[in-house]
Design a protein that fits this description.
The chain is an alpha+beta fold. It is built from 12 helices and 21 strands. The longest helix is centred in the first third of the chain and has 17 residues.
């Protein structure tokens, strides 16, 4: 097995001045992201949420909200550990591609050549072989799961490796190979077995020596550290119930499904994982994989007949407004996560939560805010905009109104908001405490007045002759 030594200095590719400039230029965007997430997490009743942003191989922002263990008031941090569930598949896929580079397997090899006991019943005589490639692209025709009820609570009885193999002979294929996309935890679990048989090493050891140690992913494990549950490992919580509450979810052990769904990590570790990928693609030097191999993994290898589903080798691939986004999501009992990269921008967003909710909506909006900031022209103003920022009471018409600085203007956002980047109203300073709303065509609209008390502090915002009081 190839090894790759990672120098700490390599993690930061830009000079300190360049890093500082990048962060400073996005200060208003970070503040808006922070303001929005702080409010939105509470409105969505998310127990805990951690976020990290990577730009140009650098971790430029990370923060956490809420609690990793609500009942004990243990605060979530960027170092809080979460189950990353199906993001585990990326580590398994990289290990497979490492064996491919070493000539120990080919992508179009039938799985049966490398996995003894691969005895699933092929339902379709006309089917082609189930290959390594078809499992990586989820087009193998294998069923989604091993035939055991491990997603069923409250105990989540994940099978052992031996039970997965035992049940395999009783299962049959769902489709002919290379016909339809069918996401398969079973298939990726079997690739974990392929790694063991081909490498001659235990799966955990191979992953540790190939990826985790070289990249110094010190908090990433191919299992959940049970001894840290409720402390650094976040307590998991259920989907929201009708009364708005969430229940604690029993900790699980993915066991024989670990190669597909068993890993744990932090947002800061996955930020390093993203940085490695940008570094590999950018500098052209081999590190764990050849740059050409990672590039091959992140291009489209499978398009479903409906032309709505695209997949690389282990990576989900999407077209977002003409820009390729790659990555993976994860959803396991009590935890949901998303790991998203835009290779052309060297931009990555990682979101982890300890609840059954949608982390993707947070990740997508963070990207939208950063895109809007990149396109925003800085407006010159002599006003001290910080005097006007804060939360204003707009009951009963809206829960609250946030006013934030936005590149020389004020941004007014009604919370909760699904998309503050699209829903913000911009105010341009006119004189004194008078601002004007900027229309979409850049023409000034109505006046917005701010009122101060005798001490000179802003206490109200007036718009259309109606006031909202600053809280």
């Amino acid at each position: 097995m190839k090894t790759a030594l990672l120098l700490l200095a390599c993690f930061f590719s830009f000079s300190i001045n360049a890093q500082t400039s990048e962060k400073d230029s996005l200060a208003d965007a970070f503040h808006l992201i922070d303001t929005w997430l702080e409010a939105q997490v509470q409105y969505d009743n998310i127990p805990g949420l951690s976020v990290a942003i990577v730009k140009d191989q650098e971790l430029i922002w990370s923060k956490a909200y809420g609690h990793s263990y609500v009942e004990q008031r243990v605060a979530a941090t960027p170092k809080t550990i979460y189950s990353i569930c199906s993001i585990s598949k990326l580590f398994t896929s990289i290990a497979i591609m490492n064996l491919y580079e070493e000539g120990k397997l080919r992508l179009d090899d039938p799985v049966s050549e490398h996995l003894s006991g691969f005895n699933i019943q092929q339902k379709y005589e006309q089917s082609g072989p189930i290959t390594i490639r078809s499992i990586l692209t989820h087009s193998s025709g294998l069923p989604r799961e091993s035939d055991t009820p491990y997603w069923t609570g409250p105990d989540f009885p994940f099978p052992s490796r031996e039970q997965v193999k035992e049940e395999l002979g009783k299962q049959e294929t769902l489709y002919t190979a290379s016909t339809y996309f069918q996401y398969s935890n079973l298939g990726m679990s079997l690739l974990g077995e392929v790694i063991e048989e081909v490498s001659g090493m235990p799966y955990d050891q191979y992953i540790k020596e190939l990826i985790l140690q070289p990249l110094q992913l010190n908090y990433t494990k191919p299992y959940l550290p049970q001894e840290q549950w409720g402390q650094q490992l976040a307590m998991g919580y259920s989907a929201v119930k009708r009364d708005g509450s969430r229940e604690k979810v029993k900790l699980f052990d993915a066991r024989g499904i670990k190669a597909a769904a068993g890993f744990s990590s932090t947002v800061e570790d996955l930020a390093k994982f993203a940085s490695w990928q940008f570094r590999l693609l950018n500098n052209g030097k081999e590190e764990i994989l050849k740059p050409s191999t990672l590039k091959e993994m992140q291009r489209v290898h499978w398009v479903d007949p409906d032309f709505n589903t695209f997949w690389g080798l282990g990576f989900a691939v999407q077209n977002n407004g003409g820009e390729k986004t790659v990555g993976h999501g994860g959803s396991c009992p009590g935890y949901r996560t998303v790991f998203s990269l835009i290779p052309a921008q060297e931009l990555s967003v990682v979101v982890m939560m300890n609840a059954m909710d949608n982390p993707g909506k947070y990740g997508e909006e963070i990207v939208n805010i950063l895109k809007k900031a990149k396109a925003q022209k800085e407006e010159e103003t002599a006003a001290d905009l910080s005097a006007y920022t804060g939360i204003y009471n707009y009951q009963p018409w809206a829960s609250e109104v946030h006013v934030a600085e936005w590149f020389g203007q004020l941004a007014v956002i009604y919370m909760p908001s699904g998309s503050p980047s699209a829903e913000m109203t911009l105010l341009t300073h006119e004189e004194g405490d008078t601002f004007r709303r900027m229309r979409d065509d850049k023409e000034p609209g109505e006046e917005v007045l701010f009122e101060r008390n005798q001490a000179g502090k802003v206490t109200k915002m007036w718009r259309h002759s109606n006031a909202a009081e600053k809280l």
